[in-house]
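[job 4471] stage=fold_predict status=RUNNING
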Amino acid sequence: MGYYVTVEASNQTEHIVNVFVEDIGPREGKVILFLHGWPVNHKMFEYQYNELPKHGYRCIGVDLRGFGKSDRPWSGYSYNRLADDIRSIVDTLQLKAFVLVGFSMGGAIAVRYMDRHSGHQVAKLALLGAAAPAFTQRPGYPYGLTKDAVDKLIEAIYKDRPNMLRSFGDTFFERYITEDFKNWFFQLGLEASGHGTIQCAVSLRDEDLRADLPAVHVPTVICHGVHDKICPFVLAEIMHAGIQNSQLIPFQESGHGLFYCEREKLNRELLRFMDKS
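[job 4471] inference complete, writing structure tokens
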């Protein structure tokens, strides 16, 4: 079942935004809220939605503003604003003691939510290939992509967004995937707005979550592909060191796309983590 949640404007320069969510599984089940990565949408978690509801979990997939079926406003793509959108969804749906799952940029937004909103109603946190604590290199932090590399991605979006999406998608997966799957994943990126894709790339380039990590006080699992070329594995190690009560699980046969390349292992680890008291 899909529906929209209305997010109120935070100031007079913004507009009311309708954010699309897909609600899958038993209504009375324990809730998992999924935050997708850049530049796709909630449908990237199809292979989790197919399995986790069988075990009694209610899966709620969010299309972040600018992506998928959500509205495409001109502004509001900072991590703060995106985290505020998640808070609106949590309050509107009256979610309690849920598991927050964030992939790549969604993982970064999840970390910001834990700090900015004091982990409101989050019982457990799962970070999958998260683009945290910082996606790009900076003084004292020689990890991740360079800011110049992200600038080139942004230039490519302005010039030929489909070509950028195709090239970027090719770096996601370490294991063989079919051409049909590549095309499906490519189409997820095309569903986004060009402007939202650009503005979230700016946030990925500029945001820094190192000061947010100590605010995570719930049990946390960090799942990360050891061959990740987009968010290198060292990012997972830094998050593990900075988040108390966290567990790091390496995915030995995955790059960035562990949600598909090792989907059976990921689903198994998520179920183990969620079922653990």
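[job 4471] summary: The mean pLDDT is 96.
[job 4471] exit 0
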